[in-house]
Write a structure and sequence with these properties.
alpha/beta; 6-stranded mixed beta sheet; 3-stranded antiparallel beta sheet; 11 strands
Length: about 325
């Protein structure tokens, strides 16, 4: 009888020890090994193969590289390359179905020709034949179609990136009501990014990628960078590389933080005392570089304090873009 009791006691201890070991092992798994809880779907569209002299060198490469980068970060990706209007509309519908009712994150990245008409922005398919303004709504895809799809899906957050501000080759003055794209206010929970300021045009690039997307791909490699930090650094790099000819532009109504490789994070608010201490450190570093005529000290400052109170001053530094 005693032997049976001892055996039962030993079995109970062994069982609880096993549970404890399993629990400890689970707790030891790093957070980075766990899949993000947010559903993140990216609609990636890149159009290069326009007919004749309307062809573009970089957008298809930009879209393929962006799709690969976001897949590696855990996004579900719907990729459309050199597509006509029907395929673009189908891809938008598929993105809406993938996001529907999941309270996830929807992203649109578009590279290709774009134009504005009556304060609306349009993505241009490769099969568009635009001779007059009346052709635009029928043969292109309104950015609002994507925005409305994301809204209908009930997304918690939306990101729209438009590298689509190149010169309009479609009978300038007859199809568009202005250069580049029109400024839009970001709806609630939306981050909207343009390759250059509204009303201006962007460079197509001389290498594999466009100027803007090339730097965006580079900054996305930062593993814990917040979305605002990513695009601030992109803006600085593009301004420097173009000698101020191209300055990216963003508008946002986000209330939570977002990190591309891990999803939505609740914003952490510092106490007044913590903010004061942080500013003192930032100000000391700013005083060391504020009079520099070279770009690199300002870039390093922005890398260190991307959302600091003096970040705007660093972005506007009167440095020599060609200086080291």
């Amino acid at each position: 009888m005693n032997k049976i009791s001892d055996f039962r006691r030993f079995s109970w201890l062994a069982s609880n020890l096993a549970i404890t070991l399993v629990s400890a092992t689970m707790l030891a798994i790093p957070a980075t090994a766990q899949a993000p809880s947010d559903v993140r779907i990216a609609l990636i569209i890149g159009n290069s193969a326009y007919p004749g002299n309307m062809a573009l060198a970089n957008p298809s490469n930009d879209a393929k590289d962006m799709a690969a980068t976001l897949r590696n970060m855990g996004f579900g990706v719907i990729e459309v390359i050199d597509s006509d209007r029907a395929k673009m509309l189908d891809a938008i519908e598929r993105a809406g179905k993938a996001l529907g009712g999941k309270q996830g994150v929807g992203m649109l990245f578009y590279a290709g020709h774009g134009l504005q008409l009556d304060w609306r922005n349009y993505m241009v398919p490769i099969d568009a034949k635009l001779a007059s303004a009346s052709d635009v709504p029928k043969q292109t895809v309104d950015i609002e179609a994507v925005m409305n799809t994301f809204k209908s899906a009930g997304n918690r957050m939306n990101i729209v990136v438009l590298d689509a501000c190149r010169d309009n080759p479609f009978a300038e003055g007859k199809t568009a009501s202005g250069k580049g794209l029109a400024p839009l206010d970001a709806p609630t929970g939306t981050f909207l990014a343009y390759a250059t300021a509204p009303g201006n045009v962007a460079q197509d690039g001389t290498g594999k990628n466009g100027l803007y997307t090339g730097f965006l791909l580079q900054e996305l490699q930062q593993p814990t960078a917040r979305i605002e930090d990513v695009f601030k650094r992109v803006r600085f790099n593009v301004r420097k590389a173009s000698n101020g000819a191209q300055i990216p532009w963003e508008t946002t109504s986000l209330e939570d933080d977002f990190v591309f490789n891990s999803g939505i994070k609740k914003a952490i608010k510092l106490s007044d005392n913590e903010q004061d201490k942080q500013f003192e450190i930032e100000k000391a570093d700013w005083d060391k570089i504020k009079d520099s005529k070279a770009a690199d000290p300002f870039y390093a400052f922005i890398q260190k304090y991307p959302t600091g109170l003096l970040a705007s001053a660093a972005h506007g530094g009167s440095f020599d873009s060609n200086a080291g």
